Automatic annotation (TrEMBL):
One function term, GO molecular function aspect: monosaccharide binding
Gene3D superfamilies: Glucose-6-phosphate isomerase like protein, domain 1
Protein location: Cytoplasm
PROSITE patterns to which the protein is assigned, alphabetical: P_GLUCOSE_ISOMERASE_1, P_GLUCOSE_ISOMERASE_2, P_GLUCOSE_ISOMERASE_3
Pathway the protein acts in: Carbohydrate biosynthesis; gluconeogenesis; Carbohydrate degradation; glycolysis; D-glyceraldehyde 3-phosphate and glycerone phosphate from D-glucose: step 2/4
Name under which the protein is recorded: Glucose-6-phosphate isomerase
Broad class of where this protein is predominantly found: cytoplasm
Keywords linked to the UniProt accession: Cytoplasm, Gluconeogenesis, Glycolysis, Isomerase
Similarity section: Belongs to the GPI family.
Length: 479
């Protein structure tokens, strides 16, 4: 049976597009806008960066770029595993943090019913999905107390198997399962996603007989949603993960060029880079579709953790990095838009626009005789939210504020896969423009290391000493 994403005409109709008109001087004015010449001036740098990325990909250093191809068979295996097992469980719980959680949340929010966990019909035999994404004791205890462990499967995600947050969640969930159901039941209630050849979680999974999927070593957390990190939970909740990968592969093909004017990932990277260099380091992602709300959260980690760096590739101190901000239309028209319209000229707004919503809803028609209300009658909510997006876009542009739009024909697995790969590749090219390593996170590691020392992990005694000798706080400054 032919899949819809194998049809060339359907794929073209579902193409995610980038509209950058409002980044240029003829729309927002010469003081803040750019010219084609400004963009062209960075073509050589982009060409060199493109070459670097392809060489790193071929050398096996950037396996996230290969996932749409290398994980086709793995996606089929995950899909079959989920189909064979999902009716055994009412709850699927992801034990992960950061990139091991945000992508799972974003895909679920985007592609399933907004009230999926509450609506049995929407789940259609699939389990509810929970992603605690933190070690807040109140939140985690409340979840564990609520779950029927006999009908729950936990997906623990950690490449190293030593990351404090997911492994503390795992230890606690495993203890409860073993106490309530017996130690022999552990393998029936856990699935692991980890590194294949190293780390503590693979050791535990093999000891316990836990079903395991693997993350390629060079796929970092924030680039991992198209690997088993995101595919396992997505498959269990009924998402077409093969179509998700197909969408990513389609965007990879569209972006397989160093020509700036043909590659949306590279063009947006250049424009965001130019804005940052001009004193506009704030990157606001503002979806005008609630289902894309958590996509903006995923983007926030991708952009911040990849591009916020102290050193460049030569070891020079540069302290670079734009600041990503998440917003939501139309909600944040009533909380943040005032700042974006009249505050400092230090932001670029990236709108996410959906052309066709999954469900339409007509606005009620009562009180047609009352001025100031009757204008709403006869319209629909998809018309209202789209009009509000275009009105906000126009208002920003009239106020000489940089903005661009990513257009989804509709939100489905294919278009979401495109979006994910588009912004991952944009981020990688931005690393080339800044001349920094976009794939490490040394600033995150320092805080982790202090915590390891305080908690008594072997090899981190010096970090505990440093923590314990930190300066005393002035009590007069604690009011």
């Amino acid at each position: 049976m032919t899949k819809r994403y194998e049809d060339a005409e359907w794929k073209e109709s579902m193409r995610v597009k980038l509209d950058v008109n409002n980044m240029f001087a003829d729309k927002v004015g010469e003081e803040h806008g750019y010219t084609r010449e400004d963009v062209d001036a960075l073509q050589d740098k982009v060409t060199a960066g493109h070459k670097n990325l392809l060489e790193a990909k071929e050398a096996g250093e950037l396996d996230w770029m290969k996932l749409p191809e290398t994980h086709k068979e793995i996606a089929q295996e995950i899909k079959e595993f989920a189909e064979e097992n999902r009716d055994k469980y009412d709850n699927f719980v992801v034990l992960g943090i950061g990139g091991s959680a945000l992508g799972n949340i974003a895909v679920q929010t985007a592609l399933n019913d907004p009230y999926y966990n509450l609506k049995e019909e929407a789940r259609d035999g699939c389990p509810r999905l929970f992603v605690p994404d933190n070690v807040d004791p109140t939140r985690l205890k409340s979840l564990l107390d609520e779950l029927d462990l006999e009908r729950t499967i936990f997906n623990v995600i950690s490449k190293s198997g030593t990351t404090a947050e997911p492994m503390s969640q795992f230890l606690t969930a495993r203890e409860k399962v073993a106490e309530e159901l017996g130690a022999d039941s552990v393998s029936d209630h856990f699935v692991a996603v980890t590194s294949k050849d190293s780390g503590k979680l693979i050791e535990i999974a093999e000891r316990e007989g836990i079903k395991t999927y693997y993350v390629p070593d060079t796929v970092g957390g924030r680039f991992s949603v198209l690997s088993p990190v995101g595919l396992v939970s997505s498959a269990f909740v009924g998402i077409d993960i093969e179509e998700l990968l197909a969408g990513a592969g389609y965007m990879a093909d569209l972006c397989d060029t160093d020509d700036l004017w043909s590659n949306p990932a590279y063009l947006n990277s250049v424009l965001q880079y130019l804005a940052d260099q001009d004193g506009k380091p704030m990157s606001v992602m503002m979806p005008y579709a609630h289902v894309l709300k958590d996509v903006a959260d995923w983007y926030r980690q991708l952009w911040a953790e990849s591009l916020g760096k102290e050193f460049d590739k030569e070891g020079n101190v540069v302290n670079v990095g734009p600041t990503p901000i998440k917003a939501l239309g139309a909600t944040d028209q009533h909380s943040q838009a005032q700042l974006y319209m009249e505050g400092p000229y230090d932001k670029v707004v990236i709108f996410l626009e959906v052309e066709n919503f999954r469900g339409n809803l007509e606005i009620g028609t009562a009180y047609e005789d009352i001025d100031g209300i009757s204008y709403l009658c006869g319209h629909s909510f998809d018309e209202l939210i789209t009009t509000e997006k275009k009105a906000t876009e126009l208002a920003l542009t009239k106020n000489n504020r940089l903005n661009c739009t990513v257009k989804f024909p509709e939100v489905n697995a294919f278009t979401l896969g495109q979006f994910i790969f588009l912004f991952e590749l944009q981020t990688a090219m931005s690393g080339e423009l800044y001349n920094i390593n976009a794939f490490n996170q040394p600033g995150v590691e320092l805080g982790k290391n202090y915590a390891y020392g305080v908690l008594g992990r072997d090899g981190y005694a010096d970090m505990k000493e440093e923590f314990d000798s930190r300066p005393e706080k002035d009590e007069d400054l604690i009011l």
